[in-house]
Amino acid sequence: MSLLVKMIEYSLKRYLCYFAIGPKSIYVSVSVPAAWIYSKYHYQMAIDPDPDYKIVINPEPYNVPEIDSLPDGLEKQLAQASFDMLSYNRAEVLSYARYVAAEEDNASEYELLQLEAVKKYNDISLEKIDTINNIYSLLIQNHTPLTDDDVAKIKKEISTNGLPTEWVNILTREGFESDIPDIIQTILDADNQNYKNPSLFIDSNIRDAQLLANLSDEYAKDIIEIKVNELGNTPTEANQTEIEKLEKLKTDIRLGLNKGYATRQLKDNIKSMSSLANALIFETNNNNYLHYLSFAMDAQVKSLTLQMPIDTDSPSSITNLQSTNGTSWINWTWTNPMDSDFNHTEIYLNGIFQNNTSDEYFNATGLQPETSYTLGTRTVDNNGNVNQTWVNSTATTDKKAIPTITWSNPADITYGTSLSSTQLNAVASVPGNFTYTPLLGTVLSAGDQQDLHVEFTPDDTINYNLISMDVKINVLKAIPTITWSNPADIIYGTALSDSQLNASASVHGTFVYTPASGTVLSAGSQKLHVDVTPDDAGNYTTAPMDVKINVLTPVQGIQLINTTVQSLFTSGKLNKGQAN
Asked: Which CATH class is domain 405-476?
């Protein structure tokens, strides 16, 4: 069987186990591509063609934006843990390539440097497998096995539409685009049982963990050999206190494994023993203590086969819930619980769900002024346990501010004057728009104490109310304009007529002359008077006017005639024939 076929079979089990959770996982889990990438790295040899063994590789976290788009929960945690393990696995393989390069150059010091990095990343990968199995175990606790119809639907989806876009993006980004057709075909050709057994993934991880545990022992032996043989260090003995700590942990771990389920204390004890054993071995350069490391590694692998106790305890509530507010917003802050498995807080506003957040604040915006709002919160842990005790807070938005308008009673105007910015000149304390009643350009009737009204609409209607204001204005009656020139001289005996009493006015009205029409005036300079009473008495006052008229005596009349005729002869405007 070729290496490629083995690799595909290895990857296949890792792929298909995810489908066993349920058909929806094909759309939401971005953990699946990590399995393929992991297996490729696992078998890939020439990934560092020119290794620089003097430099230690640091794990580079995978940037997987597709994980960020997943909703909070076990699926998201599984995806993140899968790529976290992949990061350390990649660093381990690259470091091993550098260790081999240093070994080929007989560079003992760098052999040791790179091998210590390999062992470190190997051990961390083992811890990551533990985390992944725990999450996956929770996912499949209430699993309903897939039917053949379910599997057929999955295969049809893959056959028709290919791999989900998120998977293609990840595989392409990691340089495995050319593998996609092989992956699709392998999935389509797979036996249905590979989809229907969720334990395949856990079983595969346990086998990997056992391999990593064995490798850890081998790496530790090689490290000691290099330190003792190549670097000239002498093995020493551990002190009794360190041995007693390890023996005590050994006893506690045995008791923990015998319980049949993996408690948090058991996990912590295994981790402590592994750490203490590693430190003791490398401090003493003595492989006589490798059995402690082997015990810890074996215990870690065995713990993977044990179920974690189902967590049914809800997290603690948030505390110190407070609020600050404005006219259209309220910002609530609080302190999250200290529970190690706290995941998020559910946020409700007036009983309506808003979102889930792990932050310690919620800012509600677009609210109505002078209105009460109630924030409801309850906490949720990593296993979906919800604290049924609500922690609520009611707060009220502020009142809107009232702008200030400055507008004085305008000076009196005369009827006929259009309203302008001279009268309609209100000023507000904030920017906004003014609407006047009556409008700009309106001509008011005459009268005192007439209302001028303004409605002010602030630009910032969120924080300021609309406001109105009135002022008074006096509109004086207009005085009609009378046109009337001094009449020409008349000779005594001539009665007054329209030729003399011919005043006109700027408005319609009644003209009353003194003396009246038909009056014969005495000779001399006389006064003519008129009173004009406008038809529109509401807007105009009665207007008087005087003119002068000369009334000549008969002699003065003849003299005037002669003077006039003589003037006409002189000017050539009259000849004797015309005169006769």
From this structure: mainly beta
